[in-house]
Amino acid sequence: METLPELLDAVADDRFLPPDGTVTVLPQLCQRDAGIMAFTAHTVVLTDEDPAWVRAALAAVDCDPLAAPMHPRFLTALMDRTGRAAETVDALWVGTPLPGPPALALREIADTGHPRVVRARLRRDSVRVWVTDGGLLVIGRGVGGRREVALEVEGGGAGLGRGLALAARQLADGPVWAQVSPGNARSVRAFLAAGYRPVGAELLLSARGGSTGCSGSCS
Question: Which residues pair with 36 in a beta bridge?
Fold first, then answer.
């Protein structure tokens, strides 16, 4: 697992990095995608910064070494160094593809100004959007070219979130990744009920002023 796509494929297949407390520093595949991925006792830092600087900054954090990559002091140092911004640490979930068409009556649309879609297009390539009564489903290519899903429920019936998350697995031809805020209990339950598995945590660092795009290198 020497590259990010290889690492993601392995994790999606339940083949994790060794839980040995190691921090692996990998270069960004494109200018847009930088951040930290935390797995069981093994963290991956995605950055074009000097790995020696990363390790020195981690060593300077006064905490359990396993916690250092997600510690606010290290994250602040990394943001100051790179001039990037961050939002929240998300739980990282993955779902394997499923056969058959979605049970929901979904309609794909070409364009929308919905905030969820606008946000997705800043962070992902090849974004596709589907709508149903009370719900929105977005799938695009994100970090390392992985398929990432986002969904939104607006007054839909019970189980709509689960149905949208399940539909993403049926529409994709490979693993589907979801980034979910741990405090968003409804979303956590929807992805859990749709058969997604928690595999780690993630904090992405975005370029200030918006995405610079990946120019196809991550697709």
Answer: 45, 203
